[in-house]
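Can anyone check this?
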Amino acid sequence: MIEVKQNDDKKHGSFEASIDGNKAGLMTYTWAGEDRFIIDHTEVEEAYNGKGVGKEMLIKAVEFARENNKKIIPLCPFAKATFQKNEDLQDVL
């Protein structure tokens, strides 16, 4: 099971994924004003490639945006491509 935790210092933040206590991935973002944040980087540990870790972190970012009435700017190529493939996530763009 993939567990995702969020860290945020009001300027930058991240979503960190772990599987069975092992670091599986990291998605970082930067705030762009009060209402938007930019996903600028996504990385998945090689051992967990293809297991949905990146998408799980993106889903947590979308849930956070929805719950807090924020918008996401997907600068990272992975986030941008995942948004394009999943219309159900595009309401936060």
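Reply from J.R.: I decoded it. Helices lie at 53-67, 77-85.
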